Amino acid sequence: MPGIATPTEILMAVERGLSILKFFPAEALGGIPLLEAIAAPFPELRFVPTGGISPSNLADYLRLPMVMRWVEVGWSRKLLKGEQFGEITRPRPSGGRHRRRGPRKGRPAVTPRIVTFGEIMLRLKSPGF
Description:
Structural class: alpha/beta
CATH superfamily: Aldolase class I
Helix content: 25-40%
Strand content: 5-15%
Order of helices and strands: EHEHHEHHH
Number of domains: 1
CATH class: Alpha Beta
CATH topology: TIM Barrel
Shape: globular
Distance between the termini: 21 Å
Radius of gyration: 16 Å
Number of strands: 3
């Protein structure tokens, strides 16, 4: 999935027919306020924020209509180095904060549970450059 950080990169992705884009590095770029601003002209697009997403701000990102229900959440290096994958993948009680809304028009009601490690950055560029 191509990573975007600017409106220009979004336009380049749209020109190529892409509709799901990685917003990276989300928190370093400005987080939710920036994502809301740059995504506003593109209501048909969905974004997967990554970079600085943690259990403490995950719910805030998931509340955004342009954010897919698949996000990469950063976990502590202590858990990763200790290979505590059971703790990393353990379902956490939502306390009502992560209630899944009903399906949107044309979108399935099922919310997949995905855990990912690693990523690829794909830079879109103009032909000839």
